[in-house]
Amino acid sequence: MNQQDEQVLTIYERSKPGRRAAALPVAEVPEPPLAELIPAELLREEPPRLPEVAEPEILRHYNRLSRRNFDLDSGFYPLGSCTMKHNPRLNERVAALPGHARLHPAQEPARAQGALELMWLLQRSLAEICGLPHVSLQPSAGSHGELAGLLLTRAYHADRGEARTKVLAPDTSHGTNPASVTMAGYEVVKVATDERGGVEIDDLRAKVDEDVACLMLTNPNTLGLFDENIAEIAALIHAAGGTLYYDGANLNAIMGHSRPGDMGFDIVHVNLHKSFSQPHGGGGPGAGPIAVSERIVPYLPRPRVVRREGDNGHGPHYDLDLDRPKSIGRLRGFQGNFGVFVRSYAYILSLGADGLAEASETAVLNANYLKARLAEGRAGDRLPIAFDRHCMHEFVLSGKPMKRELGLATLDLAKRLLDFGFHPPTIYFPLLVEEALMIEPTETETKESLDAFADAVERILAEAEGDPEVAKQAPYTTPVRRLDEVKATRQPVVRQQL
Amino acid sequence: MSRYTSATPADRAEMLAAIGVDSVADLFEQIPEPLRLREPLALEDGLGEAEVYERLSALAARNEDAERQVCFIGAGMYDHYVPAIVDAITQRSEFLTPYTPYQPEISQGGLQVMFEFQTAMSELTGLPVSNAGLYEGPSSVAAAGYVVMGATKRRRFVVSRGLHPHSRETLETYAVGYGAEVVEVGLRDGETDAEALAAAVDDEAAAVFLQSPNFLGAVERVEALAAAATEHGALLVVACDPMTLGVLKPPGEQGADIALGEGQPLGNRLDFGGPSFGFFCATEEQIRRMPGRIAGETDDVDGRRGFVLALQTREQHIRREKATHNICTAQALNALAAMVHLAWLGREGYRELGELLVRRTAYARERLAAVPGVELLHEAPVAREFALRLDAPVDRVLERCAERGIAAGYPLGRDYPEYGDGLLVAITERRTKAEIDDLADALGAAVAAEAVAA
Asked: Which value does ipTM take for this structure?
């Protein structure tokens, strides 16, 4: 076996009967045959074919796999709308304290006061940041928050005897928005984008009627632009009796500078794994708390964390409130992704009011600086900005001239960036920009990183002027090269045959 | 003062000059003036790292966790031992800090973990297809509702009362959105009432939802109950506990079309309820309706083996409103923890752990049922959790046990008014014989004291 093949063995292929890692406690109790305890027909005949590997080789295996991942601590990761900012290790340390990590979720509230107080404090902090009075921490991720928001909207209208059928969303919206709309039983109606990158007001006006339950908006939007007409948009939706939903994926642009509640939003989700530094984990865990206006409060998911003022000289205590007759009900088990709450609360304490505002300032500064760098030289010609104005925390370029003039697709540029040690931007999104590159540097990157990225883009374009094939065949230096994704969908192999 | 940023005053000056503005404030002018905050947020200013640690540590100290109390609470999440190797691997930057693997060439580690995890979960449940994980157990049940509705074009779910109360409630929450009706079937002697189930299923039913072991700990006779579903062309969804599948017959061999559940017992800590993960396995027929990420094996242009996100045409970032689910960020790191735990246990260790749970549970059940004033709530077979009925108010008994440093279990009355004096007791490999004996003593003393008090 050559070294290359050795690298890609699975844990099952490293297995050999008789090897093991686990040392389990001795039973200490009588050990009758299992069939004396559980009827034989309910028992499994053969144990599942799990790998048989000793501990040292398990560690080597997963360490070897880890080296086949690019990660935020290895380099610049300007993935638009994903807010790949630094993940402070302090947060990992406090989340691992036994008082958090080994606390059973069904522990009596009286014996989990620290955890409930932490949740309450985080709720208050997020409420302040969003400019809305109440927060539920329950949703597990942004899209779960969206579903919550749509179910809240449904409950709100049902309570008024209304049954609305449509939800509006701009054509620039995140894919989760329309997917959540369908799951919540509504029909999506797309709203056009105007020449400044905002919602096309006339199109919106034409589509708002008494069937519209909600408008879902990201602001700044996925073009990285703040919609200057937000007050008018909010007035239109509210006049028609709809709710206004804020997709908080881009909250990192405005913390301490502007608040969705003040803009007129009724429901806001916050991605704790974006703006509030929860590590992304290669695809989770995250959390998607929602902040809401007063009129939505009665319908919030159960249970709610509440603070009850003490009497007879006792201090306040914290509780889980299940008695909420108008609630949409639970969205998941227990209280939410508490470990994520601990990390995000630690982050908010670390930064504070001043630090959060500065984080957003620097995120916006970094984005505009990188945008300026990429407006120079070859990038300026081949990768023009989609909407030419100052951006907030991210911006979108179009690779259309690059494709036309050099034959290089945005995908090729992205793949070539891998050879330069960068994670590429988000590509082919938003959909209305042809050959889109969506770039979000975040506040935790240095000017040197931004310069190096801009230089790499310039070099790739110069190289392509000479020989576009170099980029079209890229990458070369990665653990594998371009993969056959079509095959993986047409003839899916989704588990190993053992 | 913000940590984690690097821009010096000189950097800022250079950057602003390149942008062509005088100050960062100029960049925020795109926010209409009335919407710009004039005052700082009403939050404290930032604290030093040591101060933050002390704050969080002080909050943690006010929780009675399983390090301070002997924990017999289960009800869906369990105090298992998480091997040290799990932390060593999940805390590596390369697993902790990447995004979802949208660029497979530089995400082979994470994608291969997903593939290995899918293989393991498929083995555990006896079904051929697994996804790479969902949020947690109850929302996975709700996701299954959406799948079976799409598969059968029917809108009624028949749900056993033995399904975790959070799962039933979450399913109802979601069903209001996607427009389905939930019908509940009761329990008899701890198990799903087979006659009531047969009566509740008709040609309008999309699926039957069972849990085994059910919420009361009873191992359900899934195969016998499955007939009610198959007779009417309804699918069978079975929620299961991954720590019991080393010994219990897997749902895939009992007629389940979908097997899912709460993944926390595998490699994930209690964390007051999350983050953990949900697993979701199904028959081949359902693969294109599956929610969540799925990794698949393929080749690169040089013919080398590699892994990618397969079947992305189901997903929201491609299909938008036509996606099979809205999920994006899920619980990849938690699924890795599970995979490492399963590899550490290995084939034999996994079976042995299941046997250990069954035997210690049998011991504990017998021991506690012999305590005066304590009896079994049901006599159905159990694997790792069982239900008792107390001759005393359960909350008072729990309080007395807590004073002795024991979290005696979960009060069933929270979710089942009909079992108001019921107590659900869970066993893990961490609960020693001595601790079980202590629990028997504590329960006996508490029940007796309450009898005197009454």
From this structure: 0.98
